[in-house]
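Write out the 3D structure for:
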Amino acid sequence: MSPGSKGNEAVQELFGRHADGLYRFAYEFLGTEQEAEDVLQESFLVALRHGSVMDTLNNPRAWLFTVALNLCRQRYKKNFQDRIAKKNLGTRAAASGCPGERMALHEAIQMLPPDHRVLRSAVQPIDYRAAPLARIGP
């Protein structure tokens, strides 16, 4: 028997006993099936990486749920920050009259050092309302 196989067996047993509860926990915390499934998988990957210590834990279920809780918190924080960023981008885009993609491009360009903004004029919004006024040829 290989040194890690006993730990892997412990993780498999832990999965059989607690996967459903862990999934429900993550789903209640995050609110989507996809996020809950991802947390479930990541939790057991962490358990597999630490399989050799599974036999030394007094309460492996508590340890596993702590791992899941930390993963849920990380995802919730990231999702919250993403929602705030999208909301702020949408608010700024609406205030400026620019569509979201154009506003994102404009903000990215503004973050560049001034000497790297040479191509800025090439991506400036074009006012197509003025196009009929332009004449081509004599």
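Confidence is low (pLDDT under 50) at residues 120-124.
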